[in-house]
Design brief:
Structural class: alpha+beta
Distance between the termini: 20 Å
Largest sheet: 7 strands, antiparallel
GO molecular function: metal ion binding; metalloendopeptidase activity
Strand content: 15-25%
Cofactor: Zn(2+)
Organism: Alteriqipengyuania halimionae
Protein name: M48 family metalloprotease
InterPro entries: LysM, LysM_dom_sf, Mito/Outer_Membr_Metalloprot, Peptidase_M48
Radius of gyration: 23 Å
């Protein structure tokens, strides 16, 4: 959550929109008719103009460009694989950006703009996987999959609002829930709306074709999908969920686990022998930032700490936090929410009411009253509004805080009617942090470790800079099994401060 970005609008972060492919023509429909060997339509002047317009907005939505080690490398690999598509002549026709985001995501938009996050790159194991993911995204553009999604987004007036989605499991398909799920959808989410099953398979095939043309191992599409499926499963386990609802590439690109076998079958159509360039890949990502950027705040064991805004709060028991560029989302079985900020003119009561007013165009949402209080010495105000949704009545709560630097922050939560108390501990946990506590917030990075004689999977995993799930994180990060044997001289990724 970045201070400078948050000032523009009240953001609603994705909580339930990430569960599958609701866009397009359904999970099993759409796509499937594109000849992967045909010459794609070239990048038009209209596409280039559209891409140039959306590019800076997408950059802001995803934390800006990551300019540290690896940025130029990702750009070079991306331009090379994009050139295999034939969309444009020459590598310079493409703009490839490594984004400073801690979610696993990659996407492309018309006009030759291709993106991946540093977090997704960190999950990869070699250059062929990087090329495969970027090639997959280029494949969506070559097959013009985005045109249908953009048309739907424009019909719903999605573009022009830089926000995200708050759609609780309690909200139905109409009224407030529908507005939150669609009308507040921001450009970044519109650009990465879920593809249909058929479109995914087409993009997988195109990704494999581009890998073959560039001389890479075509099996990389399958191996990176396997890593994404493993990361999904681990995320769910760490959050105590039966399914993952995290903003990530595997959510907007549905069901990576079931696509592994299809990707392997596609790879078998080509002659084996392509390169993976693993050592080159590892050398170029060594030292790359991993996880939350402290400038955007960090989440540690259920607590969000922002060293620049000098604040912290803790999720209620049984809930999880997901950090985003514009907001922090809060998820759990009994409620959903977000933490963000909006413009503030010094009137906290008006601030609370303005957040409610922005929730729905179809119905007026306002609390019966706004109550004033103090939380850990911070002036605060809150209100609750009961709203009729497609699944019955729900309670929307806005709990806002006034900080001495002239800024205000707020929680927006949604629960079943009468169940607002599940978030009370979180509201009361908001506190200022000292300069010394802020200074102790340290970034994590990827460190390429060379295995020594006597090292084991477990001994190396113990070097990971986490207090929990050290082994599990290490295994997923390196595409290893618990019984894998490591040899002296092997290179693996570990996460350190």
């Amino acid at each position: 959550m970045v201070k400078t970005v948050l000032k523009s609008t009240t953001a609603l972060i994705a909580c339930a929109s990430l569960a599958g492919c609701a866009a397009g023509s359904g999970l099993l429909g759409g796509g499937g008719n594109y000849d992967i060997n045909q010459t794609p339509e070239p990048i038009s002047a209209q596409d280039r103009a559209q891409g140039a317009e959306y590019h800076p907005q997408l950059m802001a939505e995803f934390g800006g460009e990551y300019t540290g080690p690896g940025g130029a490398y990702v750009e070079r690999v991306g331009k090379n694989i994009a050139a295999q598509s034939g969309l444009a002549n020459g590598r310079d026709a493409y703009t490839v950006t490594l984004l400073n985001s801690s979610v696993n995501n990659a996407f492309a938009i018309p006009g030759g703009y291709i993106y991946t996050t540093r977090q997704l790159v960190g999950l990869m194991d070699n250059e062929a996987e990087l090329a495969g993911v970027l090639g997959h995204e280029v494949g969506h553009v070559a097959a013009r999959h985005s045109e249908r999604r953009q048309a739907e987004a424009q019909r719903n007036s999605l573009f022009g609002t830089l926000g995200a989605i708050l759609s609780s499991v309690f909200l139905g398909g109409s009224g407030l829930g529908d507005t939150l799920a669609r009308g507040s959808l921001g450009l970044a989410q519109a650009a990465t709306l879920s593809y249909s099953r058929g479109q995914e398979l087409e993009a997988d095939k195109l990704g494999a074709l581009y890998l073959n043309r560039a001389g890479y191992d075509e099996r990389a599409m399958a191996t990176v999908l396997n890593s994404l499926a493993a990361q999904n499963a681990l995320d769910s386990r760490m959050m105590g969920r039966s399914e993952t609802r995290v903003p990530e590439w595997a959510s907007t690109h549905p069901d990576p686990a079931s696509r592994v076998q299809e990707a392997l079958a596609e790879a078998q159509k080509y002659d084996a022998g392509g390169i993976t360039a693993r050592d080159q890949f590892l050398n170029n990502i060594d030292g790359m930032l991993y996880g939350d950027d402290p400038k955007q705040g960090i989440i540690e064991n259920g607590t969000f700490i922002h060293p620049e805004l000098k604040l912290a709060f803790k999720a209620p028991q049984g809930f999880y936090l997901v950090n985003g560029t514009r907001a922090v989302s809060i998820g759990g079985q009994s409620g959903q929410g977000q933490f963000s900020m909006a413009s503030y003119n010094g009137d906290l009561d008006r601030y609370v009411r303005s957040v409610f007013a922005g929730l729905s165009e179809q119905q007026q949402v306002q609390p019966s009253s706004v109550q004033r209080t103090t939380v850990n010495g911070i002036p605060a105000a809150y209100g609750v509004a009961r709203v009729n949704s497609g699944n019955g009545q729900v309670d929307a709560t806005v709990f806002a805080y006034e900080f001495s630097n002239g800024q205000a922050f707020h929680f927006l939560t949604v629960t079943q009617a009468g169940n607002t108390g599940v978030f009370n501990s979180m509201y009361q946990s908001m506190r200022r942090i000292s300069s010394s506590e802020a200074a102790n917030v340290k970034p994590r990075k990827i460190d390429i470790y060379t295995v020594r004689s006597g090292d084991t999977v477990r001994s190396i995993a113990s070097r990971m800079s986490y207090s929990n799930y050290q082994l599990e994180r290490f295994l997923v990060l390196n595409d290893l099994e618990a019984n894998s044997t490591l040899r002296a001289g092997d290179k693996v990724k570990i996460i350190t401060y």
